[in-house]
Specification:
The protein has 14 helices and 14 strands. It is α/β, with parallel strands linked by helices and 410 residues long. The protein folds into 2 domains: 73 residues, Arc Repressor Mutant, subunit A (Orthogonal Bundle), CATH 1.10.10.10; 261 residues, Rossmann fold. The strands form 2 sheets. The protein has an 11-stranded mixed β-sheet with strand order 5-4-14-13-12-6-11-10-7-9-8. α9 links the parallel β8 and β9. α10 runs parallel beside α11. The longest helix has 26 residues. The N and C termini lie far apart (86 Å).
């Protein structure tokens, strides 16, 4: 027989169980204010954490009160959005008086979102990195390419390089898609165009035609001040050709000549068209005197195509011959490639300047290790966008450089 007190206890516990089940059902369907606020969006779009980065990129330093006000959150909840960014090494916090001051810890976060780069799916860049030490005596004047990179990706002194002196001995630029290699190649081209050196580009992507337009990308304009650049972007004089004209016409044109290969779909056909053009240039310079003065820079995009089996081994031999012979005549050749491991080691080592951007391809990492040392090949897979291992044979040890943004549209 059940007494009244036992029945009361059973009913009470049953009521508590029902309440718990109702609370679980409601909370799973409708997140709490605290959980919802983490992914809440502001009128300008993006999560609160994304907004923290945007505000710090624009305003540099913000007090905890200012940041909370901009995010429209209670200052007591601010740490929920900022602490993960601090732990990731992206944001720094320093207490001044009774408040915290927040800022970006690593300047390289400015450079991760330039034109044509999609960072989705990439692993986070390591916040604490010790880079190999180099004993360098950098030039104090020349063309400004970027800045040296110190431990933890901090920016150091400016990298000046007299390209008129070094470019004709050959330049090799390599890296995965979106790593920043084409931007670096354009920086070199811009510097030479500013020095009234004509540039000829073999391009199948139409990316180089953007040289004629000034840079309007806000994410690339913001770091200008970090590189001591003029605050006004600009375009460059440009002409487009689809068939080889006279070499003299290219030399006399004070600007960039883009040899448009975008209408040729077969890779072997593109290589053949470039080879014919280079052969014409070689024939012209064969009758010219040797020169130590840079007269022309030739840019060969997609240089890795020259190593394809269907192209044939004679193609890469011809390219190597063209590079070696033209340098005697004051003509520099810059090879821009996704892969370098298929190039002959002698050809790679003959390039006076080599700059290697982020890649995870094992063959290239092995090649870089043999050329520059294993301590540098280990760094390459984790390089931030726009950063590369830079080696100038005339200078000595390799080092890491952050490339400046382009004045023209990237």
């Amino acid at each position: 027989m059940i007494t009244g007190s036992i029945l009361t206890d059973v009913l009470f516990f049953s009521f508590l169980i029902v309440l718990f089940m109702l609370n679980y059902a409601v909370s799973s369907r409708y997140p709490s204010d605290e959980e919802e606020s983490v992914e809440a969006t502001t009128p300008s779009g993006g999560t609160k954490k994304e907004q923290v980065l945007k505000y710090l990129k624009v305003l540099d330093r913000l007090s905890s009160g200012q940041l909370a006000s901009l995010l429209e959150v209670d200052i007591r909840n601010l740490s929920k959005f900022v602490n993960p960014l601090i732990q990731a090494g992206i944001v720094t916090a320093k207490k001044e008086g009774k408040t915290f001051i927040y800022g970006l810890k690593d300047v390289h976060t400015f450079l991760h979102t330039h034109n044509r780069h999609n960072s989705s799916g990439e692993t986070d860049y390591a916040g604490h990195v010790s880079l190999p030490k180099s004993d360098l005596k950098l030039p104090v004047e020349g063309n400004m390419l970027g800045r040296l990179v110190l431990d933890d990706w901090k920016l150091g002194e400016f990298l000046y390089l007299p390209l008129k002196k070094h470019a004709q001995k050959g330049i090799l630029v390599s890296g995965a898609s979106g790593s920043g290699k084409t931007v670096a190649a354009k920086v070199i081209a811009e510097e030479l165009l500013d020095d009234n050196i004509p540039v000829l580009v073999f391009d199948s992507t139409k990316q180089w035609e953007r040289l004629k337009d000034k840079n309007t990308d806000d994410e690339m304009l913001k770091p200008y001040r970090l590189f001591g650049m003029r605050q006004n972007s600009k375009g460059y004089k440009l002409q487009t050709i689809r068939q080889m004209t006279g070499t003299e016409e290219i030399l006399d044109y004070q600007g960039a000549t883009i040899f448009d290969l975008s209408g040729i779909s077969e890779e072997a056909d593109r290589v053949e068209r470039v080879a014919l053009a280079l052969d014409s240039i070689l024939e012209y310079f064969d009758s010219q005197k040797d020169s130590n003065e840079l007269r022309l820079l030739i840019v060969v995009e997609e240089a890795h195509l020259w190593t394809l089996k269907e192209v044939g081994k004679d193609a890469i031999r011809f390219l190597d011959k063209a590079v070696r012979m033209l340098r005697k005549k004051g003509v520099g050749v810059m090879l821009v490639s996704h892969k370098i491991s298929d190039f002959d080691p002698a050809m790679r080592s003959s390039m006076n300047i080599s700059t290697h951007f982020r890649t995870k391809y094992g063959g290239d990492l092995d090649a870089i290790g043999k050329m520059l040392g294993s301590e540098f090949s280990k760094i390459v897979p984790g390089l931030p966008v726009g950063y590369s291992i830079f080696h100038l044979a005339d200078m000595g040890d390799p080092f890491v450089v952050a490339w400046r943004p382009t004045y023209s549209q990237a």
